Amino acid sequence: MSAIINKATGLVNSAVAKSTQLANCAVYWGKVTGEIAKTVYKSEGLAPPSQAQFKQTYQSWFNVLKSTNEQKQLLKKLSGVQADKATVTKAAVYGIHCLAFFSVGEIIGRRSIFGYPAVGHAEHH
């Protein structure tokens, strides 16, 4: 009986040590990423947009939605775009980024990588 307890204790201790090591590694790399982001933020002179910039951007988009003439001009501009290999590649990369962000949000929302977690007693009829 004590051999089983010793083996179980060893497994638990091993799991705790590995999880502690993993948590320490995650914290370390999180701090490294934060410091790199801070350095890039300062060196590039990045800053969030001002209230005037937000207002100007949303006002221009609202005008496009409100005015049919501006909608027609936008459609003419978009239909005149030549789709070369670089443009298609750039659009594909942006699409993949959007899909990745959406997928991560879905995984976080479901709290599961595959499917939705089972809640309660499920019966199949």
Automatic annotation (TrEMBL):
Belongs to the ATPase g subunit family. Keywords: ATP synthesis, CF(0), Hydrogen ion transport, Ion transport, Membrane, Mitochondrion, Transport. Pfam families: ATP-synt_G (PF04718). The keyword Mitochondrion applies. One of its GO terms (molecular function) is proton-transporting ATP synthase activity, rotational mechanism. One of its GO terms (cellular component) is proton-transporting ATP synthase complex. This is ATP synthase subunit g. InterPro entries: ATP_synth_F0_gsu_mt (IPR006808). The keyword Ion transport applies. It is found in: Mitochondrion membrane. One of its GO terms (biological process) is cristae formation. Its main location: mitochondrion.
